[in-house]
Amino acid sequence: MNLLDTLLRCVGTLAVFLVLPLVVGQAEHKVMAHMQGRLGPMYAGGFHGWAQLVADGVKFAQKEDIVPAGADRRIFRLAPAVALLPYLLVLLVIPVGPNGLVGQAVDAGIFFVLAVMGIGVLGSLMAGWASANKFSLLGGLRTAAQLMSYELPMLLAAASVAMAAGTVSLPGVVDAFHWWWVPWQLIGGFVFFTAGLAELQRPPFDMPIADSEIIFGAYTEYTGLRFALFLLAEYAGIVVLCGLTTVLFLGGWHGPFSDSLGWLWTLVKTFALAFVVLWLRVTFPRLREDQLMRFAWTVLIPLALAQLALTGIVKVAIS
Amino acid sequence: MEWQPLAADPAAGSGYFDAYAAIGLLAVIGVLFVTVAFTANRLLRPVVNTPEKLLAYECGVDPVGEGWAHTQIRYYVYAFLYVIFAVDAIYLFPWATVFAAAGFGAATLVEMFVFIGFLAVGLLYAWKKGVLEWT
C-alpha cells in the first residue's frame, strides 16, 4: 500500500467512471432504436454514430449556464455534483477480478455501497427543492417518496446475500459464491435489481421525471453542463447497479478461466444486465405513482422478507 | 529495504484507515474533476442573460406565485414506517455475518423468524390501517 498505487487506482476508477456510462448511453441509443425499428445516431464519428455522446458532451460544455432568478443558487449549483460523485466512490469498491483486482477493498463493502448510493438521490432532491419551480418541487417530492419506498427492499435483499456469504465484504461475497446461489438468491436478486432501477428513476419507475406531467421533474431548470452531469449520474448509476447485482447475485468474476479472464466475466455480466435495463425501458409503460408505491410495499418488501427466511433456513440446514 | 511507518502495518489495524483514505482520495479527485469541468465550461460558454430566460419554466406560462408552493405531502406516515424498518434492517447486517457460525444454529434461526415476524406484522398492521393505500 503506497500513495502512488492508490493514486493510480483512483485515476483508473475515474477513467472507468467516464467511459462505461458513455458505452451504456450509446448502447441505449442503438438498442432502443433497433427495438423500435429505427437506426439511431448514424453520422457522428462516421461508423454507426459511435461518437454521438462525445459530440453531445462537447455541445453541453459550450452551452449557457442558466440559474433561475428565484432559485436557491448555491444548492442549485451544487446538486449535480452531489448526484454524480457517490457513484464514483461506489465504483472504487466493486471487485472486478480475483486476486485483488479491485479499486479498493472495504471491509464493510455492502454497507458502504448501500449508504453511499443513497446519497446520490439527495442530488435530485436538492435540485427539485432549489429550482423554485412547482414542477421541480413535485418531482423532488416524488423522488423522496421513491427513495423511501425502494431503499428498504434493496437493503433486505442485500442482507440476504450477506447472510449467505457470512460476510459484508464484496470480494468476500464473490469468494464464497457457488453456482447454486443463483437459484437460491433468485428472489433477492430480482428485488435488488428492481429496487435499484426504481432508485435510479429509470423507466418504468420514472414517475419523478414524467415528462408528460411535470416537464422533467427535478431537472426542469437545468441546462448545459449541469444537466449533462445529471445524465452522466443516471448512466453511472446503471453501471454501478448492474455491477453490484453481478457481484452480489451472479457470482462476479466466476466463470470458465476465471483466473485469467475474471474481469471479463464481470464486465460481460454487467453489460448483460445493462442490456436488460435498456430492454425494460422499451418494454414497459410508466407506472402510476400509486402503483409504484404499492409495488414496493406490497410486493417487493414481502418478497425480500421471504428471501431472508429462505436464506436463513438453507444456510442453517447446510452448515 | 523500503522504510515503512508503523502505522501502515495492516496487522496493526491500519488497513481500515488505508481503505477509507483511498476513498477520501477518490472523493478529492472527483471534486477536482467537477471543478475542472466547470472551469472549462466557464471559459467556453456564452453569457447572455435576459429576464425571460431567468424565469422559472412552468409550461411556458409565466409562473404564478412563488416556486416553493404549499403542497400536501401525503406520505409522511409511511416515511415514519420507512425509518422504523430501516433501523430494524440495519441490525440484520452484523447478525448476518455470524448467525450460521458454529454453536449458533437453530437458536438464531428461531430468532430470525421472530425478527422477520415483527417486520411482517408491522407491515400487515400498516396495510390494514390503510397507510399503503393511495387512491
TrEMBL record, chain B:
The keyword DNA repair does not apply. It comes from the Bacteria. Its EC number is 7.1.1.-. It is a multi-pass membrane protein. Its main location: membrane. GO terms for cellular component: NADH dehydrogenase complex; plasma membrane. It catalyses: a quinone + NADH + 5 H(+)(in) = a quinol + NAD(+) + 4 H(+)(out). GO terms for molecular function: NADH dehydrogenase (quinone) (non-electrogenic) activity; NADH dehydrogenase (ubiquinone) activity; quinone binding. The chain crosses the membrane at residues 20-40, 75-93, 99-127. Pfam families: Oxidored_q4. PANTHER family: NADH-UBIQUINONE OXIDOREDUCTASE CHAIN 3. Belongs to the complex I subunit 3 family. NDH-1 is composed of 14 different subunits. Subunits NuoA, H, J, K, L, M, N constitute the membrane sector of the complex. NDH-1 shuttles electrons from NADH, via FMN and iron-sulfur (Fe-S) centers, to quinones in the respiratory chain. The immediate electron acceptor for the enzyme in this species is believed to be a menaquinone. Couples the redox reaction to proton translocation (for every two electrons transferred, four hydrogen ions are translocated across the cytoplasmic membrane), and thus conserves the redox energy in a proton gradient. This is NADH-quinone oxidoreductase subunit A. The lineage of its organism: Bacteria, Bacillati, Actinomycetota, Actinomycetes, Kitasatosporales.
